[in-house]
Design a protein that fits this description.
624 residues, alpha/beta, 9-stranded mixed sheet, 8-stranded mixed sheet, 24% strand, elongated, disordered N terminus
């Protein structure tokens, strides 16, 4: 394969046409018939055929970023190859479709979209269906506009969903509120930029046929795909029927095969999630092992993936590896990461342009392809092609990211300075434990939590959630504290306090401006002094670890308090250092020190959560 990289880099030079129209279609057909030369011809490939569920030797011709021709040697050996400007000899290696991540939040990787694209492409993800409700909860639709504009700089094809629940629940103290009317106006003003409606987390709103919730679901009809993504942990019976009847297509919150089968049997697609916080694939693998035919309705998704994990062990390729190790056939695993997701979102045959159709190596599909040494996914793909261009080689990004233009820089400026905390005191973090008090019970490796009512504080840590979008500061300026210590007058209104079991930090505290989904400041610690120091040190965003009054690790996140402005590799290094320091303070595996904390405020996943008003039962949607 000598010279392969140089040849493929020349593929589809900047003047080449990538788009729809009769002219592009004519060229694609002419290449398929051998009347015109291909831009590139892949030969001597072992094609992963997700339609035929096989691996077959063959050749693939690409023109204008789309696949024009696939010839299989077992049936087409006597069919001559057409001319091509470039030829890539695959050397008998596997040629598989590019991965489609069915559900993710870019912000949870703590890097901006252009950096996320660089990182994801090295692991074979060529399409990502992104819900940006994290930054929208902080900065509203300006945050979504930034994500879309920044993503244009890189060759990863990111399909942006309109956040459906900002805030996650109607009374959440987020930084913004987006109504159905706001969504419609944005979609009309940004034609073609919104792919579908993001995960519908307001389950009670769906069950009760709430008017505003139904209006939001109806907004999906104005998007490119017309689809509504789902989020329905533990939904069953009448509630599940109502949820599926609303036309919601998928769910990524299943934690066991029985729950997944229940939803699959209602016509929903199941996202087998394997992220940094939630590790569901091993538990869900029996759903497919029991009957491989179910794989056609099962997709792969990361949801939330830290850069250190993404760069070190992978993304959808990691999920494929885990599926194979669980006993799922390799071609089936690849199909779940490609064709199943394409069918879920209408990419397979639901798009008019060949450059939009994807999910398989077949004529009339986008030329997103992976060259693999084997089908174990122990290493990054040897080569990654996005719309026919070589963008990654052996785990390194070799594509191009355009410089930020004035619009990107303007929108980026709107994301800075988002943290507006009230004044605080050590007394705010000093409160006694009362026997029988409900406490959050952490479940390592799972976004769900439990609830316990211990008789003593053994094994417990304090947890405090502080509203950071200016409400608490305004109430304080209006005299909420009275003559009391700073912040104490906000307790139960803009400061929630409680206890957590299983988050075993000792001798310090950890604080974060990420607290799904409203992203108020969450802090967990074993003493009031370090908890105060950690919150004061978060500044305009990030994770802070304090030991004995000193900051020992930090990940700065100045963009909305969610994302860094540094390269993914630097954020990964900061993350690794943070993890090592946190481990030294007693936070043992499998609990993730960062992901294990930032989901504790999430009020739409059972059971017990922390909100600015106090502890909240997310199963029955009531404060305890």
């Amino acid at each position: 394969m000598a010279g392969e990289t140089g040849q493929a880099n020349g593929m589809l030079a900047s003047g080449a046409a990538v788009g729809g129209g009769a002219g592009a279609l004519r060229r694609l057909i002419d290449v398929a018939e051998g009347r015109e030369p291909a831009d590139v011809l892949f030969v001597n490939a072992r094609i992963v055929d997700v339609y035929g569920h096989r691996v077959a030797s063959g050749r693939v011709a690409v023109r204008d970023g789309a696949i024009a021709s696939v010839l299989f040697d077992d049936r087409d050996a006597d069919v001559p190859d057409g001319a091509a400007k470039e030829v890539v000899d695959c050397g008998g290696r596997y040629l598989a479709p590019g991965f489609i991540d069915g559900h993710l939040h870019i912000e949870s990787s703590n890097i901006r979209p252009a950096e996320y694209a660089r990182m994801a492409l090295t692991r074979g993800t060529t399409t990502a269906v992104a819900d940006c409700h994290e930054i929208a909860n902080v900065c509203g639709l300006d945050g979504l506009s930034f994500m879309i504009a920044d993503a244009r700089r890189a060759p990863l094809d990111i399909k942006f969903m309109m956040p459906s629940c900002v805030p996650a629940l109607p009374d959440e103290q987020a930084g913004a509120s987006i109504s159905a009317a706001d969504m419609r106006a944005y979609i009309e003003g940004h034609p073609g930029e919104i792919f579908g409606l993001g995960e519908m987390m307001n389950m009670p709103g769906v069950y009760g046929a709430d008017g505003e919730t139904l209006e939001r679901i109806a907004v999906a009809a104005a998007t490119t795909s017309g689809q509504v993504d789902g989020h329905a942990p533990l939904a069953k019976g009448h509630d599940l029927n109502a949820y599926a009847a609303a036309g919601i297509i998928a769910d990524h919150e299943c934690t066991g095969p029985a729950e997944a089968l229940d939803k699959l049997s209602r016509g929903m697609y199941i996202m087998l999630r394997e992220g940094t916080c939630s590790h569901d694939l091993a538990q869900l693998a029996p759903l497919v092992l029991e009957d491989p035919a179910r794989a056609r309705r099962c997709c792969l998704a990361t949801d939330d993936r830290a850069p250190s994990d993404a760069l070190g062990t992978g993304m959808i390729d990691n999920a494929c590896r885990m599926a194979i190790e669980a006993g799922i056939d390799a071609v089936t695993a690849i199909s779940m990461g490609t064709l199943s997701t394409a069918e879920c979102f209408g990419f397979d045959h639901g798009m008019p342009s060949p450059q939009e159709r994807r999910g398989a190596i077949a004529p009339g599909k986008r030329a997103d392809m992976l060259l693999l040494d084997d089908l174990t996914f122990q290493r990054p793909p040897a080569r990654v092609y996005a719309a026919g261009r070589l963008v990654a080689a052996d785990g390194a990004f070799v594509g191009e990211v355009e410089p930020a233009n004035e619009e990107v820089e303007r929108l980026e400026g709107l994301l800075r300075g988002s943290v507006r905390l009230p004044r605080l005191s050590k007394e705010l973090f000093s409160y006694p434990f009362e026997p029988g008090t409900p406490a959050i019970d952490v479940v390592p490796g799972n976004a769900a939590t439990g609830i316990v009512e211990p008789e003593d504080a053994d094994g417990l840590r304090r947890i405090v959630l502080i509203e950071r979008h200016g409400r608490g500061a305004a109430a304080q300026d209006a005299g909420a504290d009275g003559d009391g210590p700073a912040g104490t007058g906000l307790v139960g209104k803009h400061v929630g306090r409680g206890w957590v079991r299983g988050y075993t930090i000792s001798g310090g505290a950890i604080a974060s401006t990420i607290g799904h989904d409203s992203h108020n400041v969450c802090v967990v610690g074993d003493n009031p002094s370090d908890m105060l120091a950690a919150v004061e040190a978060v500044g305009q965003g990030g994770f802070v670890l304090v030991r004995g009054g000193e900051v020992v690790a930090r990940i700065g996140l100045p963009l909305g308090g969610l994302m860094s402005d540094l390269p993914a590799e630097e954020v990964a290094r900061q993350h690794d250092h943070f993890m090592a320091e946190a481990r030294s303070m007693g936070i043992e595996p499998p609990l993730d020190p960062i992901m294990g904390m930032i989901f504790l405020p999430l009020p739409v996943i059972p059971v017990l959560r922390i909100r600015p008003e106090g502890l909240f039962d997310a199963l029955h949607f009531r404060f305890v």
